[in-house]
Specification:
Layout: E1 5-11, E2 17-21, H1 23-31, H2 38-60, H3 68-72, E3 75-80
Antiparallel strand pairs: 1-2, 1-3
Helix pairs in contact: 1-2
Length: 106
C-alpha cells in the first residue's frame, strides 16, 4: 500500500472532490476502536477505511466536517483517484500492460 493515497469523494450533493490521505490518517485509523492495521484494512474493512481516510484528510486540511458517522452518511462513495494512466508510457515504477492482460497478470 502506498504511504500516500489520492482519493475522490463523491458526496450525495455537490461535485466530487479529491483529498490526499497519508500516514497521519492511517495512524488515526489504526487508533480507532473499529480500526485495524492499515495494511490489512483494504481487505477487511475497505469501504469504511477509505471513507475514514478521506474524512480524516479533510479535517487535517482544516476544513469543517462533522463527526465521522454523520459525515459518512452524506457521502455516496469514496474511490481511489483516477491517475489516467491509459496511453502513458510505463515509467520506472509502472509496468506496461500487455493487450488482453488482466490487471493481476504478472
Amino acid at each position: 500500500m502506498a504511504a500516500v493515497m489520492r482519493l475522490t469523494v463523491h458526496p450525495d450533493e455537490g461535485e466530487p472532490f479529491e483529498v490526499t490521505a497519508g500516514q497521519r490518517e492511517m495512524a488515526a485509523w489504526e487508533a480507532q476502536p473499529f480500526g485495524c492495521n492499515a495494511f490489512d484494512a483494504l481487505g477487511t474493512r475497505g469501504v469504511t477505511f477509505l471513507r475514514f481516510l478521506a474524512w480524516a484528510a479533510i479535517r487535517r486540511a482544516g476544513q469543517k466536517a462533522p463527526a465521522f458517522d454523520a459525515w459518512s452518511a452524506t457521502i455516496d462513495r469514496v474511490d481511489f483517484a483516477d491517475d489516467d494512466d491509459q496511453g502513458k508510457a510505463p515509467g520506472p515504477t509502472r509496468r506496461g500492460r500487455r493487450a488482453g492482460a488482466s490487471s493481476t497478470s504478472p
